[in-house]
Amino acid sequence: MKKRKLHSVVMLLLAAFNYATGQDLKLNDREYFEQQGVNVLVYNNLFTGGFNDEKNAGIELIHHGVRTAQGGAVRLSNTPEQWDLVPDILNRKVDRAAKTVEATLRYKEYNFDSRIVVTAKGKGVEIAVYLDKPVPKALEGSAGFNLEFLPSQYWAKNYLVDGRPNLFPRYVVGNTVTRPNSQKPKQFKGYVTSDDRGTGKFIHPLPLETGRTFLFAPDAPERMVKITSQDTDLMLFDGRMLAQNGWFVVRSLLPAGKTGKVLTWTVEPNAIKGWVRDPNIGFSQVGYLPAQPKVSVIELDKKDKPAKSASLFKVGDDGKATKVFTDKINPWGDYFKYHYVKFDFSSVKTPGIYYIQYGDTKTNNFLIGEQVYSKITDATSDIWIPIHMNHMFVNEAYRVWHGEPFKEGYRQAPPNTDHFDLHAQGPTTDTKYKPLELIPGLNVGGFFDAGDFDIETGSNISVVQNFVKTWESFKPQRDQTFIDQKQRYVDLHRPDGIPDVLQFIEHGTLNLVAQAEILGHMAQTLSNSVLDNYHHLGDAASLTDGLPYNPKLGPYEVAKDGRSSGVKDDLWAFTSREPELDLRAATMFAAASRALKGYNDDLSARALTQSKRLLKEATALLANQKQDTSGRGNAANMATNLQLYIATNEKQYLDRFQLLLWPALERNVSGNLLAALDAIPHLDASYKGKLRPYVVKYKEYIAGLEKNNPYGVPIGLTNWAGSGDVTSFGTTVCFATKYFPEIIEAQHAFKATNYLFGAHPYHNYSLVATVGATRPKAVFYGNNRADFSFIPGNVAPGILFRKPDHFENYDDWPFLWGQNEGTIGGNTAYLIFGSAFKNLIK
């Protein structure tokens, strides 16, 4: 047995030696270390703290095309969580002659600075930590240097620690101890991420292994990394002990009482000799209409020599593939890290099953046919949206998605309260309710915002507007959902005789009208009072105990009558008044009142009453504030007046709309054209004529997109990926084509579907978990993300840009919200686009 174990170790080490080849790392012009197959970024992306989960920052390793390590920095815990403190980066210095990148890190909460110097060293980098002052007493045994590795890229792979073999676990394993809360480092703004259930202790994970030489994945050369330290122990932790989104963490504690160079690591990522990234053949996983443009965008490693041609194969009835079309590829050029070429197979119009072959790479099968787009919104409207209905029990066949949440209702958020989800209660409540007083009547209607269970008022306003626009523009009669407001019960795949979209409008309006009537204006949010239940995963009904909090009871005690408890888990209403939000609500209420008329006349009338009142009050409040230079207030006011004119036919609203519209188009035609197009059916021909030059200007904007990137759509470069921008672009094109077909060609709408369904950077999976896509993404950031699953119909934010030149979208790791989280606002905007697109191609 010992011989067999020794033989395994020897074989792993030999494999590691055989693959440890490649050139030395160089500091490139984009200020990161590079060789073919390996990029080491050093504070190109900075920590921000708070809401961000900080898995996109620090020292990062992009290993054979995949970002596999990140977070390299001095951290204050073994396995940092979201809302743990992160360091401010005071400066970043690049010294090309010395081949170093240096950054100064500061924890202002502890008056603690450190300096990180990363130096190219052969095939790897040396990471050194310098201290001018010793580690503060409060952080001795807590402050250490961490580097985190992506679990999905390492589980089931081997690792060696000082020659001892082991296996990265697929599911979290390991040991923990508990320590007194007094020893726990501070968290962001004093938040607490866990419920200690009255024990006064926190969980402290213990290392899986400790040693001086770590060799990760010697059995997988594309992921092999060697980490050594001559002056300190290396420890390996499983960050999933505390949070499902945790990574594998390599860590060394900073020594107490020392200054100068206190810690040194050498990190050597393996570079496979001659490695070239496989081509990413972008195409629509949903397929193509016979008559539409069909252009594949192929993303290539810059070291890859472009092939001269690509081919299309058709799968016959006998299962055999036949080459039916070959043509030369067309060069587009470089876009950030990669080179792009295009393959146009528009001339192929015969319905059937096809795949593309470029060199040795071939795609999965896709369809050409007349019905390929017929189901692109069905999963979103039938499944994803009703699952996100709050205050309802949602059932699907044998499965319960969630019980009825928040039966105990919402309490008034106390003044001067900062919220972890970027909200704040101001110095007063702005309502008649006292701090922590129960506000009756708010636990009705509304939609979960995203992968959490709060009602973000701004999002819900947009959602109802999206439903109304879908209803008024296309009158979808689809009915696949049973919705009963009295029973507070939803059953999927069960028609009830009422169009689902009309019931969605009702459900969203119920909550928002309740806010306006009960509070007197719109709440910022109805959200969690404690952080521990904000990051809850699982059934929303189990997020709280369903009982109002009773301060007379002890912690976790239940009253004898069973009607209250001592659990501080009730949700709060953040009610500081925001006139701009009220204006947006006025817009939505005006639109909803029209849609609900004849279906729920009482709710329709209430919505119209609140629209007029909020418009009047919010306009007066804004007039007394400092001038809004952002344009957001004017945009909201513009849309509100248009919706009120459509609802009431009163000329005063039309005049105000037109007064605001034309300057808005001058400032930003791409952002405001859709609102202008919405007015066409309700105004005369002279309005359409006046709008025409702006549509011409929008055509120029489209031409600019085609020069900007190979996909010809707006691609976002922020910490939230750009599917929403692409959806909005596609919707605008669909409506512009409807009213101005001689200016805006319908073919531009296919750029949006192509991008959403697979023709985008990084991979070619559909960003929509849609019915009809041959290969949709497999995992999304939803409230079931811990299951590495998805909710059908979800739309991912998409391809996330990491500075300075890397796009990514993990399909094996759902927890990065900026690339994988579907939102109720984004998914209902997709419902509009999908409906408009299907209408366009009829």
TrEMBL record:
The signal peptide here is 1-22
- What EC class does the entry list? hydrolase
Q: Which residues form the Cellulase Ig-like domain?
A: 278-361
**A single GO molecular function, which one?**
cellulase activity
> Which reaction does this chain catalyze?
Endohydrolysis of (1->4)-beta-D-glucosidic linkages in cellulose, lichenin and cereal beta-D-glucans
- Alphabetically list the UniProt keywords: Carbohydrate metabolism, Cellulose degradation, Glycosidase, Hydrolase, Polysaccharide degradation, Signal
On the tree of life, the source organism's domain of life is: Bacteria
**Residues in Glycoside hydrolase family domain copies:** 445-830
User: Pfam families, from UniProt?
Assistant: CelD_N (PF02927), Glyco_hydro_9 (PF00759)
The GO annotation for biological process reads: cellulose catabolic process
InterPro entries with a match to the protein in the record:
6-hairpin_glycosidase_sf (IPR008928), 6hp_glycosidase-like_sf (IPR012341), Cellulase_Ig-like (IPR004197), Glyco_hydro_9 (IPR001701), Glyco_hydro_9_Asp/Glu_AS (IPR033126), Ig-like_fold (IPR013783), Ig_E-set (IPR014756)
Is Isomerase set as a keyword in this record?
no
PROSITE patterns xref list: GH9_3
What are the EC numbers? 3.2.1.4
Keyword Transcription attributed? no
Q: Where is the active site?
A: 812, 821
- Which SUPFAM superfamilies does this entry report, sorted A to Z? E set domains (SSF81296), Six-hairpin glycosidases (SSF48208)
Q: Which family does it belong to?
A: Belongs to the glycosyl hydrolase 9 (cellulase E) family.
Q: Report the protein name in the record.
A: Endoglucanase
Which organism encodes this protein?
A: Rufibacter immobilis
